[in-house]
Amino acid sequence: MIVKAFRKLTGVNPYEYQKIAMENLAEGKSLIIRAPTGSGKTEVALVPFIYGVNDFLPSQLVYSLPTRTLVESIGKRATKYASFKKLRVATHHGKKATSSLFEEDIIVTTIDQTAGAYLSVPLSMPKRWGNIFVGGVASALTVFDEVHTLDPEKGLQTTTAIAMQSAKLGFPSIIMSATLPDVFIERVRGRIEKNGGKVEIINVENESEIKSRRNRKVELINRTDEELTADTVLKEVEDRKKLVVVVNTVERAQKLYLDLREKIDYPVLLLHSRYLEKDRIEKEKLLQEVFSKNSKGECIFISTQVVEVGMDISSPVILSEAAPIDALIQRAGRCARWGGNGEFHVFGLAKDVRNPHAPYLRELVEATITEISSRGDFSLDWQTEVELVNQVLSGHFEFFMDSTFFYQRLGELARAVYEGSKAKVEQNVREVFSCEVTLHENPESLEPEEILALPRIRVDARVLSGKVEKLAELGIKTYKLEENPVIGDYDKSKYTPVLVKNKEDVAPFELYVFSGACYSPEVGLVFDKSAPNAIKSFEPNKQKLDEVKSRAEYELGRETWVEHAKNTLWILECYLIPRYCYVIKNFADYFGYEYNEFVDLIKCITALHDLGKLNITWQKKVGWDGKIPLAHSDKNNVRGLPPHATVSAKALQPYLESLFEDEDVFKAFYLAIAHHHAPWAREYKEYSLIPEFNKFIEEVWSVPKELIRAHDSANRLDFTYLDVVDENEAYRLYGLLSKLIRISDRLATGGVSYESIFSA
Question: What 3 state SS string does 547-577 have?
Answer without folding.
Answer: HHHHCCCCCCCCEEHHHHHHHHHHHHHHHHH
